[in-house]
Amino acid sequence: MDELEQVAFNLISNVGMAKSLIMEGLVEARNSNYEGSEAKLKEADTYLTEAHHAHFGLIQKEAQGEPTTVSLILMHAEDQLMTTEVMKDLVKEMILMYKKINN
């Protein structure tokens, strides 16, 4: 496995964990456990940060003149990263809605 594939799989793995935790956080909010919900989102952020560091490393290399080969695996990893970021923002809003509805 080459370095680019390793980075892509690192991204996919970290983003997958973040996505699972974000959904668990939403479930916690649905059950009115807002502290648990916030804890899940905070834990998800640690995985997203790892993913962003890996992704930024690729961007830095390309900016320094190292060509990056675009592959389906890398495209998938970036797609997962972007959709998870959007999902996180939407789940945060949904948690606020749960709080309003339940109060």
From TrEMBL:
It comes from Clostridium cellulovorans (strain ATCC 35296 / DSM 3052 / OCM 3 / 743B). Binds 1 Mg(2+) ion per trimer. Its cofactor is Mg(2+). GO terms for biological process: phosphoenolpyruvate-dependent sugar phosphotransferase system. PANTHER family: PTS SYSTEM N,N'-DIACETYLCHITOBIOSE-SPECIFIC EIIA COMPONENT. The keyword Magnesium applies. PROSITE patterns: PTS_EIIA_TYPE_3 (PS51095). The active site is at H76. This is Phosphotransferase system PTS lactose/cellobiose-specific IIA subunit. The modification Phosphohistidine is found at H76. Pfam families: PTS_IIA (PF02255). It comes from the Bacteria. Mg(2+) binds at D79. CDD domains: PTS_IIA_lac (cd00215). One of its GO terms (molecular function) is transferase activity. Keywords: Magnesium, Metal-binding, Phosphotransferase system, Sugar transport, Transferase, Transport.
